[in-house]
Every structure is written in C-alpha cells, then in structure tokens.
Design brief:
Radius of gyration: 18 Å
Number of helices: 12
Oligomer: single chain
Distance between the termini: 24 Å
Structural class: alpha/beta
Order of helices and strands: EHEHEHEHEHHEHEHEHHHH
Helix content: 40-55%
Strand order of the largest sheet: 1-2-3-4-5-6-7-8
CATH architecture: Alpha-Beta Barrel
CATH superfamily: Aldolase class I
Length: about 300
C-alpha cells in the first residue's frame, strides 16, 4: 500500500517549545518537491511522547491539509495505553490521514499475547490501515515474527516498521506470514539497513535521514525497489556516515539541530531532550556534506 522513502517528520518548534506550524508547512512542501513518497506525522521522531493530545492531533491535521492528497500521510498514533492508541487513531481517521503508525506499547513490557490483543483492539475499534512499529531498543518489547504473522491476518494491518536491529527479521516476518496465509509490507526502521532490507523484500524505509536529505533517500529507495542495486549502493555509500551520525545522541536531537543549522526551522526541542552538544556539530556537518556528494544523477 505504501512504499519508498517515508520521512519520519520532525515536529518544528520555536525556542519556547511551541509547535511552529509555519515551518511545518514549509518542511512538507520541501519534501513534496524532493520526491519523498509518504510523510509520517507525529511519529516518535516527531516527539509524540511530549506533545499534548491536542497538539498531536493538530499537527496531523496540519500535515494532511498541507499535503492535499499529493502523497500519503501516515499518522503516528501509538501509545502504551490501548485506549489512548484507539483515541489517537480515531482522531487520525477524522483528520483523513491515510494510515496510522503505532509504536508498540513502551515501558509496561506486554507479552506477545498482550501485543496481539493490543493491536487487535485498535484494529477492531478503527477498521483503518494500521502499520505496526517494532523498536525494542526504545520500548523494551519485541514484536516477534510469529505475532506479526498472526496480526497480519487482519486486512487493516497492512505493514510493519521493523527496527529491531536484526536485518534477518525482514525475511523472517515474510516467511512466517507465508506460513499463516497472511500478508504484510515490511519497512525498515533503520536507515543504515534500508538498502539491505529492500533486497530481502522490504517495501521501503520510514526514515530519519530523509529529514535532511530527502532527495537522496527517495532516489535511493526508487533505485533499490527497481532492482538497480549497483546504483543504490553508489548513493548509499555517501549516506552511511550520515545514517550513523544522526544517532550520535538520542533521536531527534541531532536531526533537529541539523535542520536548524540549515535554517529550515528554529532549534526548539522539548525536555527531557536538550540540544545537541557542540562536540558533535562538526562531525555531523561533515557527514551531511558527504551525503551531498551522492551521485543522484545516475538515476533516471
């Protein structure tokens, strides 16, 4: 249903921490011009954990209105309380987002049956395209391939953002789905592994890196999905340092600092996150400059 480079969009903020809707609209237009294939509004990179429900829904609505159907909008609606996840997903439906991305419940460490029941409850309440999000490093829980395959039997559960750090997971998920006569699209949640994930059957990446080099990421994914892996590798070689340096401190600290440095937004970020330490500035800029040299003209 969705494919390519799907940016996990930051939420621009003023120095005060207030959401900057003007900058948000400008970022959306930039991504559309640069070929981003879908926009994820208020995912975890969008600081969903520190936005109020009113702000959260407001950003989703603003992105949908700015996009005006030109690419899909995927709304981040995950929560560690199932009732809250249902509330946010229903709000995304009302805002006319195209799908919802739900990070697995964090901190409370549900069992596999608990994860199954959580996502099933959202699916039954919403009947809306849902994308699971597995990121054990942040949530302390891992949605195992067997559980994904069970969930994928529901038609509205259409994809999973897989960020376990185990590249073999893409193939494992697809294999388990085949064994249970279910189907799901897999998206890399790790920019550094996105090219390899596509080679294993993933349909794209939900990307942090695309926030700062959207054209490079969209071109990379187009090449990979077309099977043009030599061209994709040539691009990715220039992105490897940036993939790494964007996580030199907790996401989205580095990517928001770089966007502010590029004058695409102010440098606002909400506590408990704080601005990027100065000792990392030079190395992040060097990685960005290397990414600018990626041979995009090789792709037709």
């Amino acid at each position: 249903m969705f494919h390519g480079s799907m940016v996990a969009l930051v939420t621009p903020m003023e120095k005060s921490g207030a959401v900057d809707y003007r900058a948000l609209g400008e970022l959306v237009e930039w991504h559309l011009a640069e070929g981003t294939h879908a926009i994820v509004a208020v995912g975890t990179t969008g600081e969903s954990a520190t936005l109020t429900v009113k702000e959260h829904v407001g950003v989703i609505r603003a992105v949908v209105q700015q996009v005006r159907g030109r690419v899909p909008v995927i709304a981040g609606t995950g929560a560690n309380a199932t009732a809250e996840a249902i509330e946010l997903t229903q709000a995304a439906m009302e805002a006319k987002a195209d799908a919802a991305l739900l990070v697995s419940p964090y901190y409370n460490k549900p069992t596999q049956e608990g994860l199954f029941q959580h996502y099933t409850a959202v699916a039954e309440a919403c009947h809306y395209p849902l994308i699971l999000y597995n990121v054990p490093g942040r949530t302390a829980g891992d949605i195992l391939p067997e559980t994904v395959a069970r969930l994928a039997r529901r038609p509205c559960i259409v994809g999973i953002k897989e960020a376990s750090g185990k590249i073999e997971r893409v193939a494992e998920i697809l294999w388990h789905c085949a064994q249970q006569d279910s189907q799901i699209d897999v998206y890399s949640g790790d920019d550094g592994a996105a090219l390899a994930a596509v080679a294993l059957g993933a349909r794209g990446v939900i990307s942090v890196t695309a926030n700062v080099v959207p054209r490079a990421m969209s071109t990379l994914m187009e090449a990979a999905l077309a099977g043009e892996f030599s061209r994709a590798r040539a691009i990715n070689q220039h992105l490897v340092p940036l993939h790494r340096e964007l996580f030199v401190e907790s996401n989205p600290i580095p990517v928001k600092w770089l966007l502010a440095h590029l004058q695409r937004m102010d440098d606002g970020i909400r506590l408990p996150l704080v601005p990027l330490r100065s000792e990392f500035h030079e190395r992040l800029l060097k990685a960005y400059e290397d990414a600018q040299r990626a041979p995009l003209s090789q792709i037709s």
